[in-house]
Amino acid sequence: MTAMRGAGAYGRGAGAYARVGVESSVMSANPHQLIVLLFDGAQASIRAARIQMQAGNTAAKGLAISKALDIVNSGLAAALDTERGGEVAERLASLYDYIARLLLAANLHNDEQSLNEAESLLDEIATAWREIGTKTAPAAPD
Fold it and tell me: Looking at residue 137, what is its pLDDT?
């Protein structure tokens, strides 16, 4: 086996292993943890987009931003319950819309500043979401 073929096989194996890990995480996650996984996925996609943008790889940048947009729109925004969440859910919906527009601008204009702002906003929301989880998680038995 050549080194290139071996590297390709390793990459496919590592990718399959990562997919199994993500699928296992999703299958065992509670609703709060699923939102955390969405934040993680959006942030990872934005980091990948930044790397591809800096490398001048337009197609890969576009794919990464598309993935982040999909997570924001079809995951995070779609998960909002405006009936039970009231004003907080409405404000988050507006913020997710703004983040989506930042991502579109970053893609269209190769605007790393917009990418950074989108990432920063998602990071702030994700941090708050994680803190909520630690405050509402049941205490471990003694």
Answer: 57
